[in-house]
Structures are given as C-alpha cells and as structure tokens.
Amino acid sequence: xxxxxxxxxxxxxxxxxxxxxxxxxxxxxxxxxxxxxxxxxxxxxxxxxxxxxxxxxxxxxxxxxxxxxxxxxxxxxxxxxxxxxxxxxxxxxxxxxxxxxxxxxxxxxxxxxxxxxxxxxxxxxxxxxxxxxxxxxxxxxxxxxxxxxxxxxxxxxxxxxxxxxxxxxxxxxxxxxxxxxxxxxxxxxxxxxxxxxxxxxxxxxxxxxxxxxxxxxxxxxxxxxxxxxxxxxxxxxxxxxxxxxxxxxxxxxxxxxxxxxxxxxxxxxxxxxxxxxxxxxxxxxxxxxxxxxxxxxxxxxxxxxx
Length: 306
Ligand code: CP
Ligand code: NVA
Prior knowledge:
This protein is an alpha/beta fold. The chain has 2 domains: about 5-135 and about 290-300, Aspartate/ornithine carbamoyltransferase (Rossmann fold, 3-Layer(aba) Sandwich), CATH 3.40.50; about 140-285, Rossmann fold, CATH 3.40.50.1370. Helix content is about 40%, strand content about 15%. Strands 7-6-5-8-9 form a 5-stranded parallel beta sheet. Strands 2-1-3-4 form a 4-stranded parallel beta sheet, sandwiched between helices. α6 (about 165-180) links the parallel β5 (about 160) and β6 (about 180-185). α5 packs across α6 (about 165-180) and α5 crosses α11. The longest helix has 21 residues, at about 280-300. The two termini are about 30 Å apart. Phosphoric acid mono(formamide)ester binds near residues 58, 139 and 262.
C-alpha cells in the first residue's frame, strides 16, 4: 500500500478549496508559469503518477494534465473505459481501490458527477474532476488565472454568463461565491443552472443584453454539451438569441474580456469576430489550464507552498 502522511484532499468542485486557498493557488499558477517561461526545472512530483480516466473526449484537459506531470518529473496514464475493465462493468468502488493503490492522484472526466464522488469515497489518492455533467472546476482555475493576469482582482467585478446553465456555469457560480464577483446568468427558459447560490452575488435572467450591460467579463460555452448531441437541433433553436456577437459585446464594459472554455462553435454560441477579436482571451485561457493544474497538483500532493 502506498504510504501517505498527508490527509487525502479531493477536488471535485471549486468549493473543495477555501477562498484563501483558491487565491493562493491562482498566484502560484502565475508563478509556475513564470518559472516555466524562464526555463526553470522544477520537479516536485518526480516518480509520481497521475491516472486519467476519460469517459468523454478531450484535447485541453488530457494534454494539460499529461504535460503538467511530465514537466513536474512524473508521468500520466490515459485510461479509457473502452479499454479498461470499467467499460465491462467492474464496479467504480473496486476500480477506485485498485487504481489508488498504484497511482498517486486520479483525474476523472465522467458523464455523472456521482461516479466521481463514489470513486473518491473509495480512493486512497486525491481525485480531480476534469469535467462532469455538473461541474468543470479545472477550467475555472484557468479562467480565473487569466482574468487575474489581464485585469487583476476579480472581486467586485461583474461577469456575464451567456447561454446554457451547464457544468461550466455551475462552476462559475461557485467561483462567484468564493471570490466575491457578481455573476449574471442569461439563459433561455428551461436552461437555467440548478446550482444553488446563497450569497446574492448570482442573478439568473433570460435577457442576454441585460446580463451583459457593463460586464467586465463575458463568457459562453457550447449550447449542447458532450452527451447532449441528440438535443443539438432543439437547443440551436432555443439559444438562437444567445450568440455572443459584436452587438452584445458592445454592451459590456469597453475593457471587457471574452472567454470560452473551448471547443467553440463559431456562428453558434459565439461570432467569429468575437472569439477571434481583440477582447478574446481564449488562447491564454486554454494555455493556463496547464499552469493552473500544476498549481492544483502541487497543492494536493505536496501541500501549500510557503
Ligand atoms: N475546455 C476543455 O475542457 O477542453 P477539452 O474538452 O478539450 O479538454
Ligand atoms: N460544457 C461543455 C464543456 C466542454 C469542455 C461540455 O460539457 O461538453
């Protein structure tokens, strides 16, 4: 059995971090990025292994975690249900007990959030949510790092979420609560997020224009998430008035940024002139998956950096 003195910490949602920890992690991500740019070799996870369970496709999540582990001196193993016993019905509880005796940390991208919670309950190693039906917390780490780099503290700012009340939107709700920014969510009727928001910082509405007025950051995501392909046509109809285009973006603060977790559909949730335009931060946002997740892996496996 692996011996670990540190209590196991999972990262299934942003709320697994305190506000103080999240702020420190974002600063650390910026520092790790600076170190990488400077060519500094830093290998705190030498000989450590990340197991990556992917039930759904991925470009950014897979490559950023794998690269993070290599740069940190360790390694990563890609595991697909298609070619592991998970896909043949081996229980999640048994898989968790076995995998976590071999690898040091597990990243999971699953359809169901409950699968990750179940895995975590039986895991001896930290479990990181690399996207579930209800959350995408790693993406928020990258988005928040990007905002901090380009505009400074997000506390007190206004973020407009335009479109589906999906996994990304839920994680934005958690981020608003933790970091103290206002979040206006504009979704068509029937597509509002279900995530609760106790603080009064989150406002749900249907009008994308009202949501965007004066916003400091405008964010959107695909109208049909992975697993909702059958609903794509109906959703295109329902979301037609929710494209982030020039007319909508003009209502935001002149300094506003545009973000999208990617992959994007130009001409659907975002106009090409916006995602490819001057206010778009999407490429920096995508790169920051690497740096933010290095900070997360370091926190979970080595503890806070003093
Ligand atoms: N944003 C994001 O999670 O991208 P991938 O699906 O490519 O991992
Ligand atoms: N909401 C999207 C995010 C993809 C990174 C999905 O779940 O497919």
